[in-house]
Amino acid sequence: MKAYLKFLYRCFKRSFVGGWKYHLWLGFLFTIALVGLNAYCRQYVYGLGTTGMTDQVSWGVYIANFTFLVGVAASAVMLVIPVYIYKREELHHLVIFGELLAVSAIIMCLLFIVVDLGRPDQMHHMMLRFHFPVSILTWDVIALNGYLLLNLHIPGYLIYCAYNKRKPHKNFVVPFVFIAIAWAISIHTVTAFLYSGLGARPFWNSAVIAPRFLASAFAAGPALLIITLQMIRHFTHWKVERQALLTLRSIVTVAMFINMFLLGSEWFTEFYTDSVHVASAKYLYLGLDGKSALVPWIRTSFILNMVALIVLVLPISRRLRVLNVACSMLFIGIWIEKGMGLIIPGFIPTPLGEIVEYTPTLNETLVSLGIWATGFLIYTILVRITVPVLSGRLTVDADSFDGGRLDFAKEEDLTAINYQ
Amino acid sequence: MNPENKQHSDQDKQTSSPQGGCAGGSCGGGGSGSAPTRRSFLRTSAVAAGGLAAAMAALKPLMELESEDLPTVEKFLQKHYKEMDAEEMQKALTRISGEVEKRFDQRPDIRDIKPMDGVEFVYALNLTRCIGCRKCVHACVAENNQSRSPEIQYIRVLEMPRGTTNIEKGNHHYDRPKVPDNDHFYMPVQCHQCAQPPCVKVCPVEATWQEADGITVIDYDWCIGCRYCEAACPYWARRFNFTKPKLPKKDLNPNMAYLSNRPRPKGVVEKCTFCLHLTREGKMPACLEVCPTGARKFGNVLDPNSEVSQILKTNRVFVLKEEVGTLPRFFYYFDERYPGSDEAMADKISQTS
Ligand code: SF4
Ligand code: SF4
């Protein structure tokens, strides 16, 4: 126990060590997080009236970001599957970074839910009268928190073993990995069911929502990971295998194809049937009764997604620069599609046919940015700790300083993880 | 090499003595502590102090919290409505009535009124008679202590073009010097007190539930304000307090119940309760009392002689959006203009064929 506390303490200490670029980055994120905190305090005092939400559009960017980030978190599993099922060794270490990404994403999800509550001071009622299994929201609470714990355990254990120069014991990892795989799929499915279970909202009340959630998550998550891995590669001189990035690229491409196919099926069903239920989809893609705030967004998203997909299919995206651009486009495209494009039109028109549009306010945007900054801050620090431990520079008996010359550290190749 | 690094050694000498002043002694414990680490760590503590100050500044808006908004121990410990015994309920009522008195300078008569045995309430609304005057909307606001600014209304009256019952065609914001307009009919919508209410199903904390007399209620002290119920309601019947409800002192209705019209805090959901503080004591809801045309009928459907039972039996009634399967207790009907017209029509058809 004492040894473990010492480990935590040394990690904590290490997380402050770095060059000026590293500190600048931390300072930048910290500042945005504080601006967000400030905005949230204003919201806490005044109420959710500081947001653009109304009784007509009663969920906004908070829930949109939440939905999107659940997808990012779930996608960590996409790396785990090839490693443990197909034994793709080049992805082995990436799993740890993917799972750390999942941890940060889940923390952001939970924060987005908390800031969306009208009475966060009564949140403990959740524990006192948990409406399980009737309310799908309670399922989501279990799924998200369970997933957070799983993803803290697996990389946490592997890192602690590396720190102690022990070989990790298979039984402490592999079974959890398989649970995590199933769990990742479940967090996303349950989140989709939050929406698709509502008969009052025809736009969400469709069986294709859950599969589409999974497909787009498995595109957006690895896309983000490709970008972050290249950042790690750039700033830490830790060699991320090119092959690994290319494996991720094919995952993104396939997932995106499935996503586009499902989108097409949805369009067909909505527009060919052309019943009154098509109103929300019409509002989203074409505008309804002269109201069309979301149309430019969703068109941008569609163009970004299509261009990214075409680039990904072409051999040109084997060049890492091009791959980065494609992944960024895809990430933004899916963020719009899954966030603004899925949550907001569900409320427009209202069940009584009223059309009220929604635009996020400045305060609401600041709170959201603050949460994103917090998430990135957490991820940066987790990576900052993980790299020296895995490369044997921070262990029980060694705490060699890594120069501070490079922004994270100059690291040699990581030692491979071998099980007992 | 970074120029900063060259100065490590002499910087370290200078800073070695103030090192003991590090918060919580955390600087000394690292063990190996090579010079650059220590220096960088010292610098970090300075940054941390700055960061802490910035964090305090960020929290500043909290200073504006009003004292009555601060969570109190009593409120924190209050149980869920269904778990409170008589004594605990009494305590809660005393607390609430104290709060109301402080805010409105008026002692309210607040009770916890239980459903009556053998009663199931339903509403029936005659669309032939309704003239769209919105008197019910305003009577409801006055009766139920809703926020006046922003004004929260439980009843929405739709102006519908003749020839359709598709509510997507309705006009929510009609504003005419004179109603009714002959090309339209009027359709008031409020909570339908569904027998299978999706709003109840989705609530993660059971802050809303259906009572024995069919009224779906909300415990305002239990709701966490997630607005999932608002998304789930097919009749757009729920309203959320996006900010602290503003109700002038003179407008308070002191006759109130725990589950209906007591003043609500900010951040919780509310909706029509069929005026249970009136109807559970044998009176009629406020919207019915004020209706100038008698379009609104309310009563106990379990009593075969009640007016609503008669209407359900003899009139052709319909419910809104039957396909969502929530089984509303709110029925619409039109006057049967020609009594016995069915038989007359049948005769006519059989003669011609
Ligand atoms: S009308 Fe809406 S709020 Fe009222 S009981 Fe039905 S679902 Fe719930
Ligand atoms: S807003 Fe309140 S009543 Fe509605 S689902 Fe959430 S906790 Fe339940």
What would you say this structure looks like, in words?
With 420 residues, chain A is mostly helical. Chain A has one domain: Formate dehydrogenase/DMSO reductase fold (Up-down Bundle), CATH 1.20.1630.10. Chain A has 15 helices and 2 strands. Chain A has helices at 2-14, 20-46, 61-74, 76-85, 92-116, 125-128, 136-163, 170-196, 209-236, 242-273, 279-285, 295-313, 320-338, 340-343, 362-390, and strands spanning 394-395, 398-399. In chain A, a hairpin with a 2-residue loop joins β1 (394-395) and β2. The model of chain A is unreliable at 403-416 (pLDDT under 50). In chain B, α2 crosses α3. In chain B, the strands form 5 sheets. Chain B has a 4-stranded mixed beta sheet, covered by helices on one side. A two-stranded parallel sheet of chain B has the order 1-8. Chain B is α+β, with helices and mostly antiparallel strands. The model of chain B is unreliable at 1-34 (pLDDT under 50). In chain B, β5 (208-210) and β6 form a beta hairpin. Chain B has a domain at 132-280: Alpha-Beta Plaits (2-Layer Sandwich), CATH 3.30.70.20. At the A-B interface, α1, α2, α6 and α7 of A face α3, α7, α8 and β7 of B. The structure holds iron/sulfur cluster (2 copies). The site of one iron/sulfur cluster has 14 residues of chain B, from α7.
Average pLDDT across residues of chain B? Answer: 86
Strand content of chain B: 5-15%
| Name of the CATH architecture of the domain at 132-280 in chain B | 2-Layer Sandwich
For the secondary structure, the number of strands of chain B is 12
CATH class category label of chain A: Mainly Alpha
Order of helices and strands of chain B: HHHHHEEHEEHEEHEEEHHEHEEH
Structural class of chain A: mainly alpha
CATH topology call of chain A? Formate dehydrogenase/DMSO reductase fold
Element string of chain A (H = helix, E = strand): HHHHHHHHHHHHHHHEE
Briefly, what CATH class of the domain at 132-280 in chain B?
Answer: Alpha Beta
- Number of helix segments of chain B? 12
Q: What is the beta-strand fraction of chain A?
A: under 5%
Helix content range of chain A: 55-70%
